[in-house]
């Protein structure tokens, strides 16, 4: 974290999706503001957790950063180079450096291809990484690294369990020796005992290969376990960001506080003060004026409707938070 | 009822409700008694009368549990019309009251809306309203919050707990989330490979788990209230995979994944039996007493393992 140069640096990233009406002439009648001004830095070898509830824009953020969909505006630099300006050969070469592990290990592997084909496919696209004769050995090595039996190279995805399939997805992401892996909810489809195995694997791989993870998740326990720094998203924007310790022990944004207090703790002797949010997340097509969170916020005042709070370090906090009334938690933490 | 996928939680619940798909399912042995009345083998018409009236069930996926082509009001009102003989108008008014009870804003207007017009949390509330309509004695909730975000999950669990208390209704909560059960359950049954492997009150279960599997589950969960220093320390997952239910290992079904397995575990199935006198603490492990006595500081089940 002390490394001065971030590997990935994002500024004011915006992604809007048009809402259209009409069959022949698609008239735009509105915008879904999926990502609305996100800035973040990811340093080599660290894990940055992006947490938020469904629809907060965390997966859209991942897709934009992987150049799977174009941004509406904003900049991103990968090792100092403009990510959104890359074209042709430069773009293809860059894709080796940033890979993704997807949530659903059942739909993200092609059922008609063997594990060897799936894990080896990155080498077909980037033949410079592994000469043809060497591929089988490389794939078997990768399977071994993620804890699968290298003998199973000819098996098909359906012959594996959910946890093992997720390992296949991880092996595929590792094939090209990337610098950054985006993990989009990599363990949320798995049972707890299997989830723990995969989390341990991700930690081991990070140490071994010096990977940086952009770790997208809704499970706050998992993020606390794995991440160095955490960014909390709500309706397309980051509302609070800080180190693991700052977020989990000194959260100052009411949304973060409510989120943390909503997570049930597996210990019946722990009784915590609950901050209950009412209602649902507003539609990103029609977000509230001012502070996005004000419609569900227990602290909301007239100021919040008029003036959107900036994400900045405030008098009462030691890390950036986007709330006019940010204050440390009274008793959000257990014990 | 706590357990991972395929441990038999839902099938147990479906058997109790009498909604198990049969065939292919077949109930080969055992007994289900409701207020002393044997349900297995009972007249299907009698079971139909009990469903909704005496026992009701809610499901994980509210969108597929609700009928998309009828308004939610119609679906709730149906019960009042056919079970209580109410007119359509009165039944719809009662349906709106039910929506209000589960805290759906503007219940009078929303009663006319269709399931797709509700958010995930609101749909779950609709299903709860439907289940509670005839004031059942028993509510079975099968993973009711698994598909929901944490802030909404907390709202739904509060609602279920409040309704249970106010109605004096029994609640069977089926979940895989150790946090959710810890917060609402009085007693917990842990299932593995189709059987209950441990059963006791919540406080005892978390303080002194008597089955290595229970302990393994607890060691697998990264906790949100963990002290900062713990970060980076590897979790201690249960090694291996749950068995296929077509090939359950002989002896103790957990023995291939258990760090404490002995010869006896391979040969003999450990029945569920009392472990601690006076604590109503049952476990299905040959070494349960030793496991409890050694306490939580006992060495980890196993270090980093691959599956």
Automatic annotation (TrEMBL), chain B:
Annotated GO CC locations: plasma membrane
- GO terms for biological process? peptide transport
Q: Which PROSITE patterns match?
A: ABC_TRANSPORTER_1, ABC_TRANSPORTER_2
Per the database record, which ranges form the ABC transporter domain? Answer: 2-218
**Phosphoprotein found in the keyword field:** no
Offer one Pfam family short name for this entry.
Answer: oligo_HPY
Q: Which Gene3D superfamilies match?
A: P-loop containing nucleotide triphosphate hydrolases (3.40.50.300)
Membrane topology classification: Peripheral membrane protein
This entry's Gene Ontology molecular function terms read:
ATP binding; ATP hydrolysis activity
Key words, A-Z: ATP-binding, Cell membrane, Membrane, Nucleotide-binding, Transport
The compartments listed are: Cell membrane
Q: So which residues are the signal peptide here?
A: none
**Homology family:** Belongs to the ABC transporter superfamily.
Q: Which NCBIfam families match?
A: oligo_HPY
Protein name (Swiss-Prot/TrEMBL): Oligopeptide transport ATP-binding protein OppD
